[in-house]
Write a structure and sequence with these properties.
single chain, 389 residues, six-stranded mixed beta sheet, nine-stranded mixed beta sheet, Rossmann fold, disordered N terminus, alpha/beta, globular, binds benzoic acid, 2 domains
Length: 389
């Protein structure tokens, strides 16, 4: 081979390598969306997916320079199917990142699988305290809340601001309900109130009549309830139909009235709830988000849409720092840990356990809105009990 032929061959090889590398860098990022697309939480899953995709579209269809390929699994909010479902995404589809889910019991199985496999998991709703508590891990993040956060804030509001002394609680019997009630009890009792009785129904049952009769007979000063989606619609309507809303105020984390007001109508009017999002924030950031969401989906956004949007923002921040190479786990995590996330809810940061440190709003239902009343708890961090990272 002459020197000039050898040089030409080497140049061609080098160009081929660059082309291959460029191609590899542009391979699509596989995002596994594991969400409820059936059952009582269907609307929540759809809103999360909408919010996530809106952010990706705003970024030209790419995050960290990589186009996104979606692989969807309906988790049916069924913990018994959760391990199989998440393993389909991890082992069969080889996803780069998992975004999910809504139900705390399902999310705990996902967190276990993510911890074992090292796959990045971003939880866009489920508040299971354990996910950013004992199960916390460098590759697990949450864009939403812990069950403790809005519940603890509501406990303080009920006792300190509303002057309630005795409360009963009612919830679905599973991790989210138990933890929400525990958070409310902690805030309420620290501030001088007392939880006199805790009532439960199995998830996702909506037969509330016997328990409403028990509440009516006991006449507490207030009731705290955790329900969401279709179950929240039914509970709030049944509570009003029993006439209880006239005498015993019904409080809850904002899931009780978020994304549900069209269906709840008159039954929800005047209700106070606490959450990390509210209507009427009137910030330029929130207005831009709401306008874009309404234009894209012909729907008003709710807290679930915001959490999906912010899951994509967090993924985008991590990916930008590693130029799309999600294998660089430490740099990916460190970028998210350092970020101030410019959320429609207001800016928030991610605490050491990877849960949002955020303002919790007190909201009041007026017409079809959960109107912001005040900040119930400023920059509230989950206690992250049991997280060692
Ligand atoms: C949960 O299971 O963590 C949950 C479900 C719906 C709304 C809020 C929390």
């Amino acid at each position: 081979m002459t020197t000039s032929v050898a040089r030409t061959t080497l140049t061609a090889l080098a160009l081929a390598c660059v082309a291959t590398l460029g191609h590899a860098q542009q391979a699509k990022l596989k995002v596994g969306l594991m969400l409820p697309y059936s059952g009582t939480f269907t609307a929540l899953g759809v809103a999360i997916e909408n919010g996530f995709k809106l952010r990706v579209e705003e970024q030209g269809g790419k995050l960290g320079g990589r186009e996104i390929e979606y692989i969807k699994v309906d988790d049916e909010s069924d913990p018994a199917k959760a391990t199989d479902n998440v393993n389909k995404l991890i082992k069969r589809d080889n996803v780069d990142v998992i975004v999910g889910t809504v139900h705390s019991g399902v999310a705990m199985a996902m967190a276990k699988a993510a911890k074992e496999s090292g796959t990045v998991l971003i939880v866009p709703n489920a508040g299971a305290d354990a996910v950013t508590g004992p199960m916390c891990a460098p590759n697990i993040f949450r864009s939403s809340f812990s069950n403790w956060q809005p519940a603890f804030a509501m406990g303080e509001v009920a006792a300190k601001q509303q002057g309630k002394k005795k409360a009963m609680t009612i919830t679905w019997k599973y991790a989210a309900g138990d933890e929400s009630v525990a958070g409310f009890k902690e805030g309420f009792e620290k501030a001088g109130g007392q939880v006199t009785k805790q009532l439960n129904v199995p998830f996702p049952n909506v037969e509330f009549q016997a328990l409403l009769t028990e509440i009516a007979a006991a006449k507490p000063d207030a009731v705290y309830a955790f329900f969401a989606g279709g179950g929240a619609v039914k509970f709030v309507k049944d509570y009003a139909a029993a006439g209880l809303n006239k005498t015993i105020p019904l409080y809850g984390p904002g899931f009780l009235t978020d994304g549900t007001l069209d269906a709840q109508g008159e039954a929800a009017q005047g209700m106070l709830t606490t959450l990390h999002y509210a209507d009427g924030l009137n910030t330029p950031r929130d207005t831009a988000f709401r306008t874009a969401y309404a234009k894209a989906f012909k729907l008003q956004p709710d807290v679930y849409a915001v959490q999906g949007y912010d899951a994509a923002q967090m993924l985008g921040i991590g990916l930008a720092a590693v130029k799309g190479d999600i294998g660089k786990k430490a740099e990916f995590a460190s970028a998210i840990e350092k970020a101030k996330i410019d959320s429609p809810r207001g800016p928030f940061s991610i605490g050491k356990s990877h849960n949002p440190v955020q303002d919790i709003y007190l909201r009041k239902v007026e017409g079809k809105e959960n109107k912001m009343v005040s900040i119930a708890s400023k920059s509230l961090a989950d206690p992250a009990r049991g997280c060692r990272m």
